[in-house]
Amino acid sequence: MKYFFSLNVIVLLTATIILSSCSDDDDNGPKVVALKALPVADLNSVSTKNYTLFSFDKNAVVANTDSATTKWDIGFRGTTVILNSGTSGPGNAAGQIVEGIFDELLIAPTEGFAVDGDTKAIKGSGGWYTYTGDAPTGPKHAILPNAGKIIVLKTADGKYVKVEILSYYLGNPNTTTTEFANLETRPESRFYTFRYIYQADGTTNFETTEK
Amino acid sequence: MRYILFVIGLSNAFLGFGQDSLSTQELDEVVVSATRSERSLSELPVPVTVITEKQIKSMGSLRLNDVLVEQTGLTIVNDHGTGVQVQGFSPEYTLILIDGEPLIGRTAGTLDLTRLTVGNIKQVEIIKGPSSSLYGTEALAGVVNIITNTPDGVNGSASVRYGTNNTLDLSGTLNYRKNKLGLSAFANRYSSDGYDLDPETKVSTVSPFSNYTLQSKITYRFSDHTLFSISGRYFQESQNSFAEALEDGSALDVTSITKDWNLNPVLSHRFSDKFKTTLRFYGSGFRNTTDYVYKNDGSYYDSTFFEQRFYRPEIQLEYFVNSNNIITLGGGRIWETVEATRYEGKMQYETDYVYFQYEWHPIQKLNVIAGGRYDHNLAYTPQFSPKLSAQYDINKWISVRGSFGVGFRAPDFRQLYLNFTNNTVGYSVFGTQEVTAGVQRLIDNGEIVNPEENILVDPSSFGEINPETSKAYNLGVKMKPTEKLSFNAGLFRNDIRDLIDTKAVAQKTNGYFVYSYYNLASVFTQGVEVDATWSLLKDFSLSAGYQFLVAKDKAVVDKLEEGTIYKRDPETNITTRVSSEDYGGLFNRSKHMFNVKLFYENAASGWSGSVRAIYRGRYGYADLNNSTILDDDSEYIDGYATFNVSVSKTFKEILRLQVGCDNLFDFTDPQYIAALPGRLLWVSAGFSLVSKKNINQ
Lengths: 211, 697
What we know:
The structure holds two protein chains of two kinds. Chain A is mainly beta. In chain A, 12% of the residues lie in helices and 32% in strands. Chain A has two domains: 1-30; 31-210, no CATH class. Chain A has a five-stranded antiparallel sheet with strand order 2-12-11-10-7, with no helix packed on it. In chain A, strands 4-3-5-6 form a four-stranded antiparallel sheet, with no helix packed on it. A two-stranded antiparallel sheet of chain A has the order 1-13. In chain A, a hairpin with a 2-residue loop joins strand 5 and strand 6 (80-83). The longest helix of chain A has 21 residues, at 2-22. Chain A is globular and about 60 Å long. By secondary structure, chain B is mainly beta. Chain B has a domain at 542-638. Helices cover 9% and strands 55% of the residues of chain B. Chain B is globular, with a radius of gyration of 26 Å. The two termini of chain B are 42 Å apart. Classes of the chains: A mainly beta, B mainly beta. The interface between A and B is medium-sized, with 28 and 26 residues.
């Protein structure tokens, strides 16, 4: 019995490895699929009035007319990031910033989530980004996402997502160049590039899901 | 002997060479910085670098930074003025003295070395490692002591130097000494059109300036036992530059005037062969005013001022038990005040201190100095700074020496009392004594709302701020295998704790933060310094020096080991981990620095000259990959070398003509090294007049 159990585990593990690496389909059991990060490029947040709303499940922008619904999870306006909860929306979204590397965060934390209130759950300056101001060195007056900050969210309907914001500028530019340092040649701001992993099965697992 | 030469040749090949050609040859030089009394350099267990007047003249230096930039282990850095980095410490940790008395007037920690002319000095003495045991605060990394000339004989001199950028330096001295009375007077005017490395910008790199220095010393010998001297110095500089109004960019004329003075009467009396006392009084003032007016109609835009005063009486007693035991005791009180645009009213700060020193020479081969100083100031915890140093002569030509010392730097006025809100940007900075009241005021004004959430750190926790302290270990060897060769090598390690940094206290409704100062970081600096001098031919002397330096933040080292420092890949902006090997240490520190200098002097013909090369290895400039630390090749400024040459001819010891070129190959880096002008050509003429009857005095 003991022997049989271990064998099962080995089979399952092997299957997982095969599935995640080759996406083989000829298996009859529940299919274990590796989750892949989805890129979102140049999400426009230029409006100074309305938030650009986004749904992780749909991987799409949600019309602003749906702001009072739970169709969206996260919203962007300039550097402000809101979640569909608390003072920002009718949903149950919650979030926190976790330190680490996106690919290494394999399990979502179950505690530490906050909802939007007087301060936003996802803090801006000193949270997801640093404003360089009149820095004596490096690019001035730039919004640079902080390295090693992963945004972990529960969506409006309680699913786990991890997000890494990569850029606040059009075209995800290299921010170490003189072209970026020069305010006249710097790409336009208020364009988010990020990548995320959405776990649709409701678990905290950011590696795989069963289908 | 051949064997030794070979060994030294080998280490030179590995490490580069040493420094300070002319000075190390003269064995019986007298220095004062190490003990606060005149002592023979060769007997001191503390390594003191001495740069003589002769050497300074040979290099053609004008200001103190010109002298220091060519010395091993010293780096000239620019941050709110031109300062010196010693053993990896920023300028605020090195005390600058004139005749043993501290200069005041630092801007953001830097005492601008260009304020100091070297036209009237006997020598510059440099001690690396802490000397707080004698000098108290600021002497944490080291001490640079400018020793001015003492009136001797009847003589005078005048010199003029003119060079690139319309730079003109005029100096004159008069000395008179007869019987009991000695008088000396020195005047200097220095002016330049400055330079502009980046003509596309409206602001010059260095704007035109002119300054004056007046210096005088009077000595009077009441008897063989009692000597009085009083010396004074006055400096004034004005500089005109250009700025743009923050609101609308309209052109502004900026006039900055800096004045500083010091006065130093000293009375010393020898009661007996065994007992000597010295009474010193020192007063100094510094004032800078900067006025901004609109260029078009001259109307007022803004003005700022900063004024500092320093007064200090001190008594020192020396007891010569016998030639092998000398005990020194001293004590005094310092009154310091600061008044400035960014302070609420006049700030005052008093320090009482006592110090002792025991010089012990138990056997012929061993010299020991033990000392300590206790500083008491109500604004910070009392400090005791001990120091122990010893030298042992293994044989006639090899000595080893070691020292352990504690140094400190007290929190300065800005860190205690600053009350500053940047009206155009919107952030506020308060000194630790002001922060509680300042934050309360912002709450009352509605500039901070929702205190539970927007107060990040309890302001009252900032009340106690400790001085920054360092424990320093130095170990060295000096060798003089032949008359023609000398060699010094040393290892140093400094462990610094309680470094003062800024921290956000609260967030204002405008989104900007309120900052104050607190003790944060622990860093270390360590390295190797090597100097060698070789009189390779008649009239030629070659010297070389090398420093290897590592300076790191201990918290960063720990975090790197934990793997919790991250960076963003510049191409993808994806976060990755920074590895320990990539950590380059603190910014603006060069791992490698060396210099090679060749001096020529032929007394008979009156010709002399020098060729000097100074290399500064690559150093960190800024964090570019969002890791907050120095860890990527793109964050470094490449190493560079400058070459300086000079030739002079002296006619009958009266007239000396000299030509020179600094930065011969015109190395510049407008973007990153603005303080380095291009090639500078210059010519100078000096006249000396000596009254013959006084030569033998």
